[in-house]
Amino acid sequence: MPTGGRQDHGVVFYARDDELVGQVTEYLLGAMRTGGVGVTLATPSHRTAVEQRLEQAGINLMAARAYGSYVALDPEEVISRFMINGFADPAGFWSALAPVIKRAAKRRGKVAVFGEMVALLWDRDLASAAVDLEALWNELASQYSFSLLCAYPAELLRSSGHADELLEVVAAHTHCGAQGSSGEDALARSSADPLGDA
Fold first, then answer.
1. What are phi and psi of 87, to 5 degrees?
2. What is the Cα–Cα distance from 103 to 97, expressed in whole angstroms?
3. Is the Cα torsion angle 152, 115, 126, 123 positive or negative in sign?
């Protein structure tokens, strides 16, 4: 039976791809090395880099995929299943992701999910949809036990055009982190007055 609740839902605002890849690799290894499952919904370049790091760390990805301890999903394909006319459809989201998380959660170990769908939506000026997607992840976490790490490129958050949505993004997470000065600036803005001067 599902055993959800308030789960570990983190976000990182990153300035350098290599730093993000290193953090994501360690995050996934924390689950996979203890009998759990690592799930990625990463951009192609990040997925390739993370998989290279996993293999360098001693993970046999072919075996991990076959065994179900590593699952790589195409974020664009998943997005196409729940985005309708610029809005995130809850039924489509659950249909696309609940079976994956449910299957992974049946294992005894931790389930660690890394996702970049929110950043892809934000990059398309669909900030409100990104906020809705964060909320949908939290609803899914109320039903199934898993941790989630989201990532946003810091440069996407420099504009004050989506200050309110930025506050909502931060509020949707249990903890936030930043890498580099650009990421720290973006995170600092999340606590500033969204109506103030940028």
1. -120, 145
2. 10
3. positive
Question: How far is Cα 107 from Cα 25, in angstroms, rounded to an integer?
Answer: 20
Q: 86-89: which pairs have CB atoms within 8 A and are 24 or more residues apart?
A: 86/126, 86/129, 87/129, 87/132, 88/121, 88/129, 88/132, 88/133, 88/136
Distance CA 19, CA 83 (A): 30
3-state helix, strand, coil in the chain (%, to 5): 55, 15, 30
Tokens 């500033």, residue located: 192
CATH architecture of 9-189: 3-Layer(aba) Sandwich (3.40)
144-174 confidence digits (pLDDT tens): 999 999 998 887 666 656 767 777 776 666 6
- Per residue in 39-51, pLDDT (tens digit) is 999 999 999 999 9
Is the pTM here over 0.70, yes or no? Answer: yes
C-alpha 119/C-alpha 156 separation (Å) is: 8
Residue 101 three-state SS = helix
